[in-house]
Structures are given as structure tokens and as C-alpha cells.
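> run fold ComE1
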Amino acid sequence: MKRYVLALVGMLVSAWSLAAVNINTATAEELKALPGIGPSKAAAIVEYRTQNGKFKSVDELKNVKGIGEGILSKLKAEAVVSGHGSAKGKAQPVLKK
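> ok
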């Protein structure tokens, strides 16, 4: 039984780690889950977003200090600007009619 519980937890963690991160809603802590993003770059992303408004595309990250083409190419697979990545809000219930 313990093995099954551990396997289930492992699958859930794996699924969570594969989820896209919404760079418009993610906290600095959530942004650190992205490849090549540590504490200082995460803070720079949040600062840029605060000063300039929401990102219109992931490519706009190249305007953030410390993010070049190399890091940007890694981020494109895991970062999004809309949708359900890095859900800061709560899931909405389905309303039945």
C-alpha cells in the first residue's frame, strides 16, 4: 500500500512540474521553477511586469535584464502568457443548468 501511495505522489509531482507557468500571474517563487530562472531573474521578471504591464508574448522576456536568447529558447516550452499555467486564481466550479 505504501508503494502505491508513493507512486501516486510521484505522479502528481511529475504532472505538476510539467505544467506551464503563466508569466503574467506567477509569483517570483513560481517563476523559479522555469529553466534558467533563479531568484534574481525571477525578481527581475516580476519587476518588469509591474512596471510595464502584462507580457503580450513569451518573447517579451528578452527585454528583462539577464534573459538572453539562450534562456528564452528554454523558456518557450514552459512559459505562457495566458491560460491555466501557474494558476494563482482558484478553479471555477462547473455550473449545471
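The chain has four helices and two strands.
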